[in-house]
């Protein structure tokens, strides 16, 4: 799954990677982004609207759902295109969630050890997501997950769907709605480009948010 991540790359570098026009804006670095908070995404607010980088709520509940409906933070690649809950957003409301890395917890005797997973070159990651207008009128999103690949398999059986550079534009293209077409043109980042290391259990507490959280834990 993907239940916690970090984003501390500066806004201009994220815009440059997607060829977005720069705006007079700054992003505060976040080292412990938790569900149920506003997170930065890249999306088309509507089919005709230009691409923007803005904020959505991390928690997916479509506008037609009841107030008691689930509010998942993840959607699996196996079901996102066919589930009644997700398929409309998968076809029409896809987004990218920028991250410098994500956290995962490795089961150990007597507890779990958190790890930070990121690119070996420390470039930002682009996580595939879907969004929908929620019943309260605010946009909310879920991050897609897939079976873990490469080094991530040693930590957890699942991981976020991390896209390669060539897949970013087609993933965001509102004209692409067919599931099979998307499968052909959208690909995950080569898992051999990922690395990880154990970090402090302080990350378990969402109130903790500082750069030391992504540093290797003291042995």
Tell me the structural class.
mainly beta
Number of strands: 12
Give average pLDDT, whole number. Answer: 94
> Looking at this structure, what is the CATH superfamily?
SOS response associated peptidase-like
Global outline: globular
The Rg value, from CA coordinates, equals: 17 Å
GO biological process, one term: protein-DNA covalent cross-linking repair
GO molecular function: lyase activity; peptidase activity; single-stranded DNA binding
InterPro entries: SRAP, SRAP-like
Keywords: Covalent protein-DNA linkage, DNA damage, DNA-binding, Hydrolase, Lyase, Protease
Fold and architecture overview:
The protein is mainly beta and 219 residues long. The protein has one domain: SOS response associated peptidase-like (hypothetical protein yedk fold, Alpha-Beta Complex). Helices cover 12% and strands 33% of the residues. The chain has 4 helices and 12 strands. The strands form 2 sheets. Strands 3, 4, 5, 6, 9, 10 and 11 form a 7-stranded mixed beta sheet that branches. A hairpin with an 8-residue loop joins strand 3 (38-43) and strand 4. The chain is globular, with a radius of gyration of 17 Å. The chain starts with a strand and ends in a 21-residue tail after the last strand. The mean pLDDT is 94.
